[in-house]
Design a protein that fits this description.
Blueprint (H helix, E strand, L loop, with lengths): L1 H8 L7 H18 L4 H14 L6 H15 L5 H21 L5 H20 L4 H21 L8 H16 L21 H4 L9 H18 L5 H17 L9
């Protein structure tokens, strides 16, 4: 597969040995951290690699930027390289969105992968929410459009569903320091997941229920600040959330 990557990069103008190293490092080292070894995420990882290896893939720039940031945290590359790669990745995604006229699942999966990667980069660097929220909003729009477009009842690709959960995760976590409700509707956080699989989610581990409670708490806080609920209702919902939190246990439904 590495030989195939080398051949693919030959089709990209001005690809350097450093580009090849960053590309290889992301797909075959970092991706093991993002896509854990389970059936749903293994399929998502294969989808991700396939999208990355398409000619003139939008993911090429974001993959290199993500790898550069990861290596910079270990002091292996300088910040100038990180800024250059991140800027190129952002510009490439903006250009792809500007060219987007109709819903195309393959292309939208690529844009969604690029967007979630950029969100992860900004979070890892401690960027302000003013830089992160626009990316989350854009990703949320793509997710909702993708589901509305599936009139035949077909399920989106595994990589789309993986990015959907990533966006939900980023969305809810960004509510913690800021009093706002999640942008992505709760029904889409774990769409098509049954109760048992929620206890051992490939992305959230055994903390899916905690994640859901965080989202509900963020929505309640936003409703309180915006005057949409009365103090008495807030107290009732607060007590309910606290009782659900107290009752939570990891690995529910699995024999120990």
């Amino acid at each position: 597969s590495r030989l195939f990557i080398q051949r693919s990069l030959c089709l990209i103008p001005n690809a350097t040995p450093l580009d090849l190293y960053l590309f290889d490092y992301n797909l075959f080292q970092m991706s093991k951290l993002v896509f854990v070894n389970s059936d749903p995420s293994s399929s998502a990882r294969s989808d991700h690699i396939a999208l990355a290896l398409e000619p003139e893939s939008l993911l090429f720039e974001t993959i290199m930027a993500s790898a550069a940031i990861h290596l910079s945290l270990a002091g292996l590359v300088d910040q100038q390289l990180v800024c250059t790669k991140k800027s190129r990745a952002l510009n490439a995604m903006r250009a792809a969105i500007a060219r987007r006229q109709t819903i195309n699942m393959s292309r939208d999966c690529m844009v969604l992968c690029a967007s979630t990667s950029l969100i992860g980069m900004e979070l890892s660097q401690g960027s302000p929410l003013s830089q992160i929220l626009p990316l989350i909003r854009g990703s949320t729009t793509l997710i909702m459009e993708g589901f509305y477009a599936a009139h035949d009842g077909s399920s989106p690709p595994a990589i789309f569903r993986h990015c959907q959960r990533l966006v939900a995760y980023f969305d809810v976590l960004s509510c913690v320091p800021y009093p706002r409700a999640p942008l992505l509707d709760a029904d889409n956080w774990f769409r098509d997941r049954d109760e048992e699989s929620l206890n051992h989610d490939p992305l959230m581990g055994c903390f899916s229920k905690i994640f859901v409670l965080m989202g509900k708490a963020a929505s309640l806080i936003r409703a309180f600040y915006s005057g949409q609920v009365e103090d008495k209702q807030v107290s009732v919902q607060q007590n309910l959330l606290i009782s659900q939190l107290d009752a939570w246990q990891p690995f529910q439904g699995r024999a120990t």
